[in-house]
Each structure stands twice: as C-alpha cells, then as structure tokens.
Amino acid sequence: MDKHIVSVLRNRVGKDERAAKQYDWYTASILALRDKVIDTWFDSTRRTYDTGGKRVYYLSMEFLIGRLLRDALSNMGMTREFEKALAAHGLDLAALEELEPDAALGNGGLGRLAACFMESLATLDIPAYGYGIRYKNGMFRQRIDDGWQVELPETWLAHGNPWEFERVESTYRIGFGGEVVAEGEGVFWHPAEQVEATAIDTPIVGWKGKRVNTLRLWTASPLDPIKLDAFNAGDHFGALAEQVRADSLVRVLYPADSSPAGQELRLRQEYFFTAASIQDIVRRHVQYEGDIRTLPEKAAIQLNDTHPSVAVAELMRLLVDENGLEFNEAWDICRQTVSYTNHTLLPEALESWPLPLFERMLPRHMQIIYAINSRVLREARKAGCDDAQISAISLIDEGGERRVRMANLAFVGSHSVNGVAALHTELMKETVFADLHKLYPTRINNKTNGVTPRRWLQQCNPGLTRVIRDAIGDGFLDDAEKLVDLNAFAEDAQFGERISEVKRANKVALADYIKKTMGVRLDPDALFDVQIKRIHEYKRQLLNLIETVALYDQIRSHPERDWVPRVKIFAGKAAPSYHNAKLVIKLANDIARRVNADPSVGGLLKVVFMPNYNVSLGERIFPAADLSEQISTAGMEASGTGNMKFALNGALTIGTLDGANVEIRDHVGNDNIVIFGLTAEEVAQKRANGYNPREVIECSRELSQALTAISSGVFSPDDPDRYKDLIGGIYDHDWFMCAADFDSYAGAQRSVDAWWEDTSRWRAATIRNIANVGWFSSDRTIAEYAREIWKVL
Confidence class of residue 108 from pLDDT cuts 50, 70 and 90? Predict the structure, then answer.
C-alpha cells in the first residue's frame, strides 16, 4: 500500500513525497483507497445486472454522510494497512482524517438517517442508489457571535471532493413553467425554462467491503451559461442570469421559504432533484429491461419524507406522456413502485404549496394531480366517506388559500406508508392521516429507525469497542444485536471499571477539544449532561435551560447540599428564519456566560453551547456523554436517532415517552432509563381541555423563580426585555408543555443525581443500555424495509 499511495501522490496529486504537505498526503490517501473501492463498486454493479436484481432507489433532500475516509477504511478492513504505510513517511492517519471536511449535504436526523440507511443497504448486499442534491454550501456554517447564531456558507467543496465522479452521460433536462398542449393523440408539456441536471456519484462502502452502492447527487447547469450578445452589449450581470438561476438550485439546503421567492426556490429544488432521479430510474429500466410495465419488479422507490412527493406526479407524467400508457395502468404501476416514509406529525412540516405557484411552475403535474385526486375522491365517496372526510383526504386543500397537499399525494401514490417509531406510527393513524388510514387501512406500517453501529460505535468509540470485544468476542461487529451478551457483565465490577475508564478518557478528549476551541475549562469527573439536536421548540431545549437556571439558583441558595457537579452541553442549528429557536441559542449562551463566571457555584455547574454541530462533532460528543437529553413534548418527535447513538455509547436517557424513547425503554428496561412528564395522550387532553399554564407556574416556586429571572433580564442585562416574549409564551399558552412538565423534569434530574452517586448502579445501567440497544441498528431497520416493503430479501 505504501508504494501505491506514493504512486498516487506523484502521478495524480503531482507531488514528490519530500515536497508533499499533509493535504497532499490526505488527497493521495483517499485516491489510493478509492482505487480499491472502485473494484468492488464495479463488481457490485455487474452482479446486479447479471442476476437481474431489483434495485432500491432512496430519494432524500438530505444525506448527512459526514467524513468518508475513516468510514471507508474501516469497512474495507484497511485501517491498519494505511496507518503503517503512512507512518513510514512520518504521518499520522488520524491527523489526515481530520483534514476531511464534513460533506454539507444535510442538517439533522433526517439526513443522518439517510446516510445510515445507505451504509446498511451496502452492508446487507442490497443493490441501491441514493438520490439527492449536491449542495455547494449546505444549510449553513454556524458561528456564534456574542451568543447569537450567525449563518455563513459551508465551503466544503472549496478544494474539490476526491470521492466523487461526474457522470456527464447521465444528464437530464428539467423543465419549469410553460404550457401543456394536445398534439395528435398525446399531451405534451412545453416548459418555458429548462436546466440540465448532471449526476455526481459517490461510492458508499458496506461493512467488510461486501458491496459498494452509489450515492447519486445532482448538480445544475444552464443550457446557455452565458448570453454573449448581452455580455458584449455591456450587460455583464444579466448575461449570466441563467447561470445564477441554475446555480441557485444546488447552492443551499432548505432556503428560507418565508417569502414568495423562497417558496418558489424550495419547490424548484424539490422538483429538480426528484425529476432527474425519476428520469434516471426510468431510463435505466427501459435501457436494460425494455418493458416499462415491469418497473415494479425491478425498482423500489422510497420517498424519504414529504420533500420528494412530486415524484408521484413525475413518474405518472413519464409513464403516460413519454411511454404512452393509459392513466389507470400507469397509476397501478406507480403505486406498486413507490413507498413513502413520514417523519413528522407537525402540520407545517407536511409540505403544501400554493396552488397558483404549483400550477405556474409545473402545469402538467397539476393536471395529473387533479386527475389522481378525482380517482381518489370517487373511491372515498364509494367507500362511504362523508364530506369532512373527503375534504381531509383531498390532494387540494380548499380552505382559505388553495394549496396542494404533498403528503396526501405521497400517501395515495404509494403502496406503503411507514412511520419511524411505534408511537409515531400509531399517532399517524389517529391524527395527520386519520381519514386516509380509514380509506386505506392496510397501507400504514411501522419501521423504527436505526443507526449504523460501524460509525456510531466502532469508529467513533474504539476504546469501548475494544472492551466489548474482549468481553464477548467479535460477533457484535457483524450483528449488533449480539451486544445482548454484555448483560452477563452488568454487575461485574471489573468490567464496569473498564467501561468507566473508557468513558472518562472520552470525556477528557472532549474537554480538551472544548478548552482548545472555546476556552472553557471542564471537569471530566463531572456528569456530562448533553442535548445535541436541531433547535426547535418541540425538542424543548428551553425546558432544559429553564431547569438549568433553577439548578443554578438552588446551588447558590443551598451551598450546604452535596450537589453533583454537572456540565450542560448544548449544540444544534436553528433555521435562519426561526426567531424563537435563535433566541434559545442566545439564551443558552447568556446563561453560560453568567454561570461559568460565577465563583459561588465553583465547579458544580458549567454550561457550554458548541457551535456548528455536524457529524464530526457528534462523533466527539456521543462517546463522552453521561446523560442523554431526549425531552421533546410527547407526541411530537417522530423517532429520534441521537437517543440511539447516546445509549449505544453508554449514556443513560432522561426523556419523555415520545418517539423511539418508548422502544428504548422497552429494550433497556424501566430501571435503566429516566422517564418523566406527560404522555402523548395527556398532552392532547390538556390542549383540548383548556390548560392554564399560569396556574401551574404559580404553584411551582422553582419554575416561577427561573422564569422570572429569565424574563426580567437577569441573564440579559444589556437588553432586559430580550426574553420577555419567549417566556410570555409559556405563561400564555405553553403549547410545548414546558411548564406542565417542569416539576416532573426537575424531579427526574434529582433522581439522576442519586443514580450518579451510586457508582455501581450507574455502571450497571450503562452496560445494560449498551447491551440492549443493538436492536436499533439500521441493519435491522433496512432488513425490515427490504422484506416487507421493497421485497428484495
């Protein structure tokens, strides 16, 4: 391998080993590894064609894949080989791995789930393509200035991406606007504007290099990159307008949609990548199979959430307009091929578009959606649905501003609609899809999320992996559910000590990183209490911060008590236009500034907000966490995957009975998790029965004092009214039940203190968490999809 890396360095990077810098060696290492990956990649593709295998096509707006060098080396079994080869030149592989930027292709759990699924598809030897957008600047790079979130562009592609391959032969024209005309016996859409979508492929390596699948991302370019006549006439900016317009499609993930222009760009983005993907799927099938009618036998198209829902209309357009099928036959083929994963119960996240905007941008698709709707509503009427039910089922929301309901389109256009945790799936049936579920009672099913244990245990926590291997052997590396064998060691004092030593080493490493990057000194022997996830009111970082303020007040008021030292760690991004979420980030930093400088609390409490949360930062934090905060308002979190990563790395969960927390509790046992708060049913009852949060606040001294301190400017002396409205929302309506759950949450935190002081009990619970969450492997999840939805296993 040494010779190969040096050869690549000279012939492809263009550097002599004596003149090469670290970045040159990093690039050469990736290219040398890529050469090995390519052989398996080609072999995987040939096997699929030779066997006539069915492919899975996974459409997602996000693929939060993180860094690939360490992942690919580990899965190919070549880590030590590369370490040895690079060491011969005085190089440290771990240092080179740090040079790789995180791919800015996602934001949160949705995108990371897609990345885990892609790795598990390859691991289970299932032929698959992931389809998305090659974002040039991602969502944004988060910087904290004076406690406020500042959004900056991600520049992950500034020096190119050595993992990717451009496929100019896979280029498709994507249209917008224009008109639909009848020509002869057919109907044709003549777009007013077109851009080209070109495929950029990245290999995704499965465990032990068994299979390499393809992540195909689309980049956009105009048909005419420059209008020379306008340029020569002096209109230099106008001459490049088409280039800018195309570039905007792939520039930013989730552009703010608070303006009409932002809404239009979001819709254009979603159609752009979905249309290119569906055209690619249909082209491949026709090229190799000939008969478009056999598409369901050879292709399974999975829509990851509502963003790619327009795939239903686009597939219908291709089947009817381009391939000449009758509408009813095309509809049957579409529904047999497509399936849909729902990730949210929040109505605002179930995308809908103003009908005039949709019809102007995609006139033919609007016609097709009306045609689908007429069939569905006639079916509903025939099934005995009343007017209210038909109104809820309709793909067109006629109330107020007329809108196209994309979630309903995905539902009716799929043969399978799945939730991502048992509770979430049941709530889907009762809430957002209640009437559609009555019409199609067998369509909704559950596929509880999972995470890949390769990245989230083996690679990010090698110390823990070694201790587990020494105890139970290597079987869990191939099958995470074999971690259950660790239960036999839960009460083993010596094994518990080894687990504790690994945890402390991880905490020391994280504390060193925080000291280096933020200047905050942390005690690794304190309890590391962590909440890292997208900032959103339903995820209730605010509840955590209110309890932090209450704890701060209690420590100062009662210094005689034996307080457990705590480090509160927060991280996550707020959407640029989400005012309250950005205020929560500011509040976290204001609290940190006050608490961390207060000598009266000594080392008993520290608060840290770590900027620019991404996969690589998560890989540092998860192994170091003692307590995992999963405190969403019950009934509002679909699943969560951070809860699984924390437990897999030996953190105990404090949480509500929400999302996958319910199933984590079922697997680890009631005695190894801290549950508090209202249930989803109780939350719904409170909202329905006229809940009065002010009465609750007045009855809770700790809560009242904490809210008063925040709202009166104790933590914001430069602007005493900064948090007045944020806290006022809790007094006025408390939609997210922060007041309702506060006393239960504070009591649960004091229970955590008691657990922490009982070292043997804490260690036993830690081991039982690690032992019993192997079921939450994405391998298990993908196997369920493959058997029950895609029919490829």
Answer: confident
